[in-house]
Design a protein that fits this description.
This protein has helices spanning 7-18, 21-24, 45-61, 71-81, 85-92, 97-107, 110-124, 135-138, 144-151; strands spanning 35-40, 66-70, 129-133, 160-171, 175-180, 184-188, 193-194. By secondary structure, the protein is α/β, with parallel strands linked by helices. Helix 1 runs parallel beside helix 3 (45-61) and helix 7 (110-124) packs across helix 9 (144-151). It is globular and about 50 Å long.
């Protein structure tokens, strides 16, 4: 399989992989964490959201439970829980973007706030696989490689699939990188598997 798939081919591949015994029992991963990336063209972001929801329904009809988490929704929940969402919305227009970014990075720090919130959802909801989306919506105040690095201790029991608007490449010289929107080449992360290349 290659990264160049039509949305229909990608959806079929994901369904076949995620419902397979090999994937659900984490076979063929060595001792690596069961993290997978599903890269997709950024311009398909809106249709991908619909495709993902349809895929979740189809997978659940096949008897596999999906914990479908959206980083943007989780970020909003954290801001609401801490009582500062309205305040940020009020000051956003006339505040320096760098200051807003710093504030959000602090309040939504993966290790201190985001991962514990995801951990609560993992503990509260029976599931066979975790889907993580909303990566593009939370950039630049939450970076996908920070989420994955911090999630390793919390989400190691079940396979986790991150939907990523951009490309995930492995090169011998440079290692692996997550290139958000196919433009931002700075997220070094090498421990995940590209699910589009996963065979069952």
């Amino acid at each position: 399989m290659s990264d160049v798939m039509t949305p229909k081919e990608r959806s079929e591949h994901l369904f076949r992989v995620v419902t397979s015994e090999r994937f659900l029992t984490k076979q063929g991963l060595g001792n690596e964490v069961p993290f997978f990336i599903c890269p997709f063209p950024a311009q398909e972001g809106l249709s991908m959201a619909d495709d993902r929801k349809a895929l979740v329904t189809r997978i659940e009809h096949a008897g596999v439970k999906v914990l479908d988490l959206n980083l943007y929704d989780i970020a909003l929940d954290i801001l609401r829980d801490r009582g500062i969402l309205d305040e940020i919305l009020d000051i956003e227009a006339e505040t320096d973007k760098g200051e807003i970014k710093e504030l959000l990075q602090s309040v939504l720090d993966p290790q201190a706030h985001l991962i514990p919130k995801i951990g609560d959802a993992i503990a509260a909801t029976p599931h066979d696989v975790i889907f993580l989306s909303g990566v593009g919506e939370v950039y630049p105040y939450i970076r996908s490689h920070n989420v994955l690095n911090n999630l390793q201790s919390t989400a190691k029991d079940r396979p986790t699939l991150l939907f990523f608007p951009g490309s995930y490449t492995h090169a011998l010289a440079t290692g692996a990188s997550l290139d958000l929107f196919d433009r931002l080449h700075d997220d070094k992360y090498y421990r995940a598997f590209n699910i589009l290349n996963y065979e069952v």
